[in-house]
Design goal:
The strands form 2 sheets. A 6-stranded mixed sheet has the order 5-6-7-3-8-9, with helices on both faces. The radius of gyration is 18 Å and the shape is globular. It is 34% helix and 22% strand. The protein folds into 2 domains: 182 residues, Rossmann fold, CATH 3.40.50; 71 residues, no CATH class. With 264 residues, the chain is α/β, with parallel strands linked by helices. The chain contains 8 helices and 9 strands. Adenosine-5'-diphosphate (ADP) binds next to α1.
Length: 264
């Protein structure tokens, strides 16, 4: 795939792009190169998965996109639908919830911090949005529970709801379901598909689960390691929302198999 032309301000030239990583390379100190010329674009409303072996630089790439890490060379440019600098949210593999806050307060936490940023016009509007997110993520019944009173799967729902509460232009998910058991994971994949659909989120999902990548995304960047680079971009040409039937379809299995072969 080709990287988009960047204009002089460094904003993606094409307004339909939420994000463009252009030949991003990363090397820490004198260590081996971690990423080499990784290019990736994400359109508004598009959901792109990144799969690749452990250590190929997936987390590093997300951190560069988020601005937590500086690339050695190359550029990442982002834009919201309105053309302003976009808001990003990051969901980590482990739920990083505040143990002394209830589920509801954990979801509201990110928004409370940014209350001055005009995400919500009033406390009431914010509280309504939090209530909507609790409903959307199946957490309404658990709103007054504390994190240690709910399961790992429920904790990850809180994490996703919290990330969505800031109304991100781009949602970055770093193996959000990896720590969960297989059944919980499958169930959550279906819910995540529905949530993405309802919120219309633009996002990037890092996962080492090829099946999960196929199930949830519009396109998949398949990475290779040492140094981390993009091996292929695979289109997942199936309409969203994805159904539980799609999760076990032969079409999905075929795509999964093709990507598996690339990785092995
Ligand atoms: N801050 C850092 N300093 C030095 N090396 C790092 C740093 N962050 C990541 N790495 C190295 O970069 C490589 C890729 O790591 P990572 O991005 O976490 O891979 P992945 O998420 O694909 O498993 C690993 O070898 C890791 O040790
Ligand atoms: Mg990682």
């Amino acid at each position: 795939m080709t990287s988009p032309m960047l204009d002089r301000q460094g904003a993606p030239a094409a307004p339909h792009l939420a994000l463009a990583a252009d030949r991003v390379s990363e090397q820490f100190g004198a260590g081996a190169p971690v990423l080499e010329n990784v290019s990736l674009t994400v359109e508004h409303g598009e959901f792109v998965a990144i799969v690749g072996p452990s250590g190929c630089g997936k987390t590093t790439l997300l951190r560069i996109i988020q601005g937590l890490e500086a690339a050695t060379s190359g550029a990442v440019t982002t834009r919201s639908r309105t053309g302003e600098a976009p808001r990003m949210s990051y969901v980590f593999q482990r739920a990083s919830l505040l143990p002394w806050y209830t589920v509801r307060d954990n979801v509201a936490f990110g928004v409370t911090l940014r209350a001055g940023n005009g995400i919500y016009g009033s406390k009431r509007e914010r509280d309504n949005a939090v209530a909507d997110l609790l409903a959307l993520t199946g957490l309404t019944k658990y709103a007054d529970f504390y994190p240690d009173q709910i399961s790992g799967g429920m904790q990850q729902r809180v994490n996703v709801a919290r990330a969505l509460a800031v109304r991100p232009d781009v949602l970055l998910l770093d193996e959000p379901l990896s720590a969960l058991d297989a059944l919980t994971r499958e169930r959550l994949q279906i819910d995540v598909a529905r949530i993405l659909e309802q919120v219309g989120t633009t996002g990037i999902l890092v996962t080492h689960d090829i099946r999960e990548a196929v199930f949830l995304s519009d396109r998949i960047a398949v990475m290779a390691a040492h140094p981390g680079r993009t091996r292929a971009i695979v289109d997942v040409d199936f309409p969203r929302p994805r159904t539980p039937e799609f999760q076990h379809s032969t079409e999905l299995a075929q795509l999964e198999r093709g990507i598996w072969e690339m990785l092995h």
